[in-house]
Structure formats: structure tokens, C-alpha cells
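Friendly challenge for the regulars: who can give me the C-alpha cells for this chain first? No prize, just bragging rights.
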Amino acid sequence: MTHNQFSGGRAGHVIQADSIGRIDLTAPAAPLPEPDPDARRLAGLVGGQWRAEAAARGLFGPLPLPVPWRTEHRLADHPELAGDRPATVYTGPAEISEMFLALPERRLVVLGGAGSGKTSLAVLLLLRLIDRLGPEDPVPVLVPLVSWEPGKQPLREWLAERLTKDYPTVPVARLLAERRLLPVLDGFDELPPEHRADALRALNRSLAPGDPLILTSRAEEYRRAAGQSRVLHASAALRSRPIPAAGVGEALRHHAGPQQLARWQPVLDETARHPAGPVARALANPLLLSLAREVHGRPGADPADLLRFPDRESLTHHLLDRLVPTLAPHTARTLGGIAAHDEPDLAWWRLYWRLTRPVMARRWCRALAVLVFLAACAVIALVDRSAHPVPHAAATVTAGALLGLAGGGYESWARPQRPPRPVRSPRRRAARTAVLLLACPALLLAELPVRHWVPGSARPLAAVSTALLLGWFTALLLLAGRAWLRRTARAVSAERQSSPAAALRGGRRRALTAGAAVGWAWCVVLSTRPDPAPPWQALGAGLALAAAVVLAGQWGAYTLARLLLAAAGRIPLRYAAFLAEAHRLGLLRRAGSVYQFRHRSLRERLARSR
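First reply, four minutes later:
Bragging rights claimed.
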């Protein structure tokens, strides 16, 4: 009897010829891949952030809205690229996540009308994918697409910059370069109409084989952009369908509860008798259904008022107009001003743009601002500090404030986070640290014999020493401040780290740390140079430079813009607290480190009615 044995190594197939007898196969199990610790930490942050946001939006109710989603072959790629799937209706994120994971390239376009639940589905799908994340699976991250300018910034560079703001303690640029992220790009239709076709071309150019992607958009806007370009390469498409009249009645009945069911009975009877009537057609939209439950489900409201509107459009306007007075009666005027003048992303680091947009939107004004700042620096350098310390300090602080307001802070000029360099050995790190600590003192000691033996070299060497000492102190303090910021940032909880409040606190810590480091270094330099300044003058110059550095940063620009806009009555003085309260009431939604209005239709209606 033939005895065949295979052991050790790996083999996809074992082929035996001639007679077949006993076969013993002994092969070691392939080791499981080790999960990336940064990817695991990012998954925890993303999951915590969006789980809290989904709860705030009411997406975890006992009976989720029964929104049906149907495969849309007309806006999908060729079947051999996207996967040849029959027309199917899906009713929840569990089924859609299974369908998504079975796609060849894992690319999905979620389409629908205004308020059809595209973003809600994206959030629930993201959470579903995080719950079943494997060691090698990419981490899904949801990013609003509205702030991307496809003609000015490549997609990956913009994505790295945006995710770095949302998750500052995670090397998202490295994870993006290593294809460990699954971008969920929300709101393709919110891009300007002239940029959508270019954005679709840029998306297709940036996608390599095996790169997953989820994109949400209104169907008509996506169809027009695809007609000028092409659909997303190798993508399947889903399109929302109206909620059936029976589903509308069931959702209203479960929301009301047994005690309030009598108040909603006229609406339930109307939707049952006339499933194609204006009320049933309007409430078949998930956004309008949720607005109806919030506006007319409160004590004192009469749900029967929904029956007095003759068509869907008038009922839609009624619900959008009544939402803010119902939830926050005293904020309607302020929210209307924010909706009319601010960008879709309510980012604290962009508040300066509301103040300087009329002037700085033109390129020649930006160039003029740079020239004015350079002229101010030249004036500061020429002023005699000993004779005019107060004008010098005032000019320094004013230059920093103008620079921050003109450009939005020096942090916005920095390039996005780069992939980290290979880890150096402990010996190389120790050598680099020793060079950094001892280089400047060694150079200062080396110049002493030169100053003694070379006549006339004291003044130029003093200038060189001052510059070296300033740079050395500044570098040491900034490195120590960066290490402190990273250590304190890691201590922030997962639910708070990706919030706008946490981003604002991080910007304040960065600004104060940089200002303190530069100001103290300049004070030390003025006090230790060959012709030292008086202590009070050195301290005043250090404080002035520290204030200029703080005001020239993003947090300084935000603080100045907030104070000026609040003095003009255009925003509340406690702007961040106002936005947080509007989010708690359900008028705003949170997307990473920025706020957005609950829906684009609400923002447009508030801006129009202001």
C-alpha cells in the first residue's frame, strides 16, 4: 500500500500521481498577522466618536427607520468590475455590510434624494465594519467632502491633513500610505457644481487596485458628474427608496408610545387611507419623518396640524421652519446668521475667514498683507529697543495679530503630517540628543579664543552668538513642548479626543506652548548677550514676542475673530459653547473636529429666512 507523507513548509496543492494510498499531510498553520497598534487605536477612536454621534442622532432606537435600499445598476460600473449582482432591496446596515464586503474592490456609492438617510447609513455601516474589523482590514473613517478643492489639493494630501486634525495622536498619514484606511467620503453633492466632475476624475486617478472607498451623494448630482467624467471605477451603487406607508405608520406609532397614541391617530389614519397622499409622501422621507416626530411629538403640539398642508413642499417648509423655534427658541436669529455667512463645516480654525473673507479672498490682497507684515518686521528691527520699548512691543504684537488674521495661523501653512521615518536605534537617538544639547554651547566656547586673538571680531561674533543661542533655546523648548503635548493628548478619552472642543483645547495648548518657548528664549538671549538688556526690558520683549506668536497661530486668530464678531453682534461671545449646545439639542451634527448643520436643507432654509 502506498504511503505518502508531506510535512513542513506551505503548499497550496499537493498532487499525487499513480496509485493512491494513505496520505498524511502535516503542515504548520500560517501565523496570524499582527494588528497594527496605531490602526487599532484609530479604530477605537473612530468607533467611540461615531457611536456617540449615532446615539445623539437617534440612530440606535428600538425600531430603526425602515429605509429600503435598492441596487442601482445604471450608476454602477461594468458588472465584471463592480460585481454582477441581481437587483436586490436591502433593509439595514447588516445586509449592506455583507454586500459591501463581497464586492471585488469594496467600492460603494450610496445615492438618494435630500434627507433620504445617506449619511445615517454611512455612519451605521462604518460602525458595523469596525465591529467586525480583522487584523488586516482597513479602518473606516468618515470625512465630509465639502472642504476638498480637487483643483488645488490632491485627495490623499487633503485627506491626511483633515484626518490629522480629527485624530492628532494617530499617524494617519502613515496608515493612509500603507492602505490601512477605508475612506467614507460623505456629501459629494455638497461640492460646488463646477468641481464635481473634476472631483470624480481625481477620485478615479487616486484609486489603486484594492483601494476600498464609500461615497455618498444625491443621485442627480452624481449622475451629472458621471456624465461629464465616468462613474467611480469598479463601484457598485445603492439608491434609497421611499419608506412604505405601512413603515411610516409603524415608525410614528412606536415613537408615540401607548400614552400618546391618541394624538397621532389622525395622522396614522390618513397615511393608512391615502398611502399616495401628501402626508404619506412627505413622511416617506426619513428626514421629514424624524422632523415630524420631534416638532409635533412634544407636549402641547398637535400632530393633526400635519394634515392641513395641501402638498409635500409646503409640509417640508413647515417642518424645517418649526424645528429651531421648537428645540431652541432663542437661537433662531444667531443660527440664521451662521448659516448665511459661514461655510458648511463650522470649524473653529476657519472662523477668521468670516472676518477677512471680503478682503483676503483676492490674491493681490494676500500678497499685500505679506508685504505689510514684512514692512512691520523691518520697522521692528530698526526701532531702538532701549529708547522705544513700548512702540516696539506694540508693533510686535500687532504684526502677530495681523499675520494670524490674514493667513489663519502658521499651523495652516504647514504641510500635512508625513509618514514617520524608520525607527532609529537607541544609540543613534542618544547621539542625536547629545549633539542637540551640546552643539550650541560648544560653538560658543569655541568662539572665545577667536574673539581674543582676532581684533574687531567681537561685534559680529556677538550677533552670531545671539542668533545661535536663540535658535538653540527655541528648538529645545519646542521639542519639549511637543513631547508634552503628545503625552497630554494621549490621556484624553476616546469619546472626547475627536470632538471640536478637544481640537480647540489642543490648539490652545499648542499656541501657549509655542509662545512661552519663543518668548522665554528671546528673554534669555537678550539677558545673556555681551551687551545685556535691562531685566525689565528683556522681560517685556519676551512677553511681546510670546503674545505675537500666540496671536499669529490658529487659536490666536480664532480668539481675535471671535471677540471682534461678538462685539459686532454677529456671533455669541461663547461661540464654542453655543455650537456645543446646538449640537446637544439636535440642530447640529458633529463630524470629527467640526460641526455641521443637521441637514443641508435646514442650513439653506435658515439662511434664506434670515
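The radius of gyration is 30 Å. Confidence is low (pLDDT under 50) at residues 415-423, 489-495. Your move, everyone else.
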